[in-house]
Amino acid sequence: MDLAQYMDQRARLVNEALDRYTSAGREEDCLKPVLEGIPPVLLEAMRYSLLAGGKRLRPLLVMAAAELWGLTPEKVMPTACALEMIHTYSLIHDDLPCMDDDDLRRGRPTNHKVYGEAVATLAGDALLTMAFELLALQSRVEGSLPERVTRVVAEMAAAAGAAGMVGGQVEDLLWEEKDAPPEQLERIHLLKTGALFRAALRCGAILGGAAAPEIAALDRYAYHFGLAFQIQDDVLDVVGDVAKMGKAVGSDARQSKSTYVSHFGLEGARQMAREHVAAAQEALAPFGERGRVLAALAQFVIDREG
Amino acid sequence: MDLAQYMDQRARLVNEALDRYTSAGREEDCLKPVLEGIPPVLLEAMRYSLLAGGKRLRPLLVMAAAELWGLTPEKVMPTACALEMIHTYSLIHDDLPCMDDDDLRRGRPTNHKVYGEAVATLAGDALLTMAFELLALQSRVEGSLPERVTRVVAEMAAAAGAAGMVGGQVEDLLWEEKDAPPEQLERIHLLKTGALFRAALRCGAILGGAAAPEIAALDRYAYHFGLAFQIQDDVLDVVGDVAKMGKAVGSDARQSKSTYVSHFGLEGARQMAREHVAAAQEALAPFGERGRVLAALAQFVIDREG
Q: What is the pTM of this model?
């Protein structure tokens, strides 16, 4: 299969949907969040970060998981886009001066550099909230079962919240400037980025009607996928190209941050990433030929340059 | 009826539930958010603001509305507590230095004064996210219909987000230090506080199985209830007692903030508040004797001293 073409086509569908969900004036479409009354500067700030591009990896994982049970991308689009909104809100808040204090994101000034801290904080809050509105609207998609949708809402909230992504960000802050041992590093990444990857896969599967053993297989895939992703991030921070990354490189070393490369060396980290990709692909065995998209996506994680 | 006793008893139920939902170690209770793995400082920061007291007015409105259809408080407790979590997150974020920069809330130092800006921001994010987890868990309460729960999630997200409460906070910031005309003042309050009161009532009613005309009646009640509440807030900022308010008084005047008192004078504002309470009570006509709790709650809004 041509993964690049597959990813481009899916990312375009996601971009179109994200634009549609946050554009006023198409009231014939009942499947969209309430937009009436949103202060223009707030909607602009939300869209500034939401439509800034990116690979749309989390929505892709929702769609790829749902596809295992024969659902087309359109059938899970609200859930897929909700994931991207949650991811985007987390980037806006992580970039704030009181957090990582970053100026550049996806090649452009960060949200608070453009709109100020107050509006940036609120744009993040609004994206997180709209994500749950979209998750609820998933139940209006023909064929969606409301009991699956409530399960998806619970899964997503648990993954994005204090016991997941937000907790990971707190631990990341607590270990800043300390030398986090590898186990702690893994824990931070499993929470901070892994939880959302896992939720993407689980929610796609839940909407598709997956059984418990199938969800467990996707959990194993997600575990290895997430770690491979993070290790490759650490590798790219050393060897990456600013233009392809859309953000500064070498920042981990400058901040003396504990990373997989600082612990295991460049080649050691690369080897670990390769092993995680192989383990992720093995976890797909129960799906046979149907698992080929997810297998290719795992390989992409370490082949990517940005 | 003895409203004070009713309110105390309900607030106690809410406080117990909020404590239970955020306390580890009672795993027999499936009806609670995922707590395992939450960094202790984050859970502490969340509980610091969540369990700081307050009248629990929003949960009370959920319960009072649900009661119109015969539901006991226990039957809507996850939804009632979710409202309080959303309200609490909004207070934490509003108090941040980049927003209103407040040091005191409910008689204690604000969240960021105790835990720092980064953890306070994340504690707010986590409370907002946990609110949606609780809303989803509402579907596990015996007798809850999942299609009503997905509707509640959509209602709550719309009310709390960019087209509701968050939008109101943005407009409040935009009009800061400008002399907002009365229409704009009303708009800010309807978004910033009114939207959540309205959602509380609507969601209690939806869980109870209300029909559209009944929800419309509660919308009218909510409109007047919310404005009476805000006007009384403005009145109390002039005549209130610091000890009973748990926050500084006179801050509106010091900041030359446009308020109902600055526009209409103290007696003018009081008269408007009384008229809104009467209109709120009139809106309850379709419920007859069943509406007495909500009628008393509307009266409480202007009788309160904090």
A: 0.96
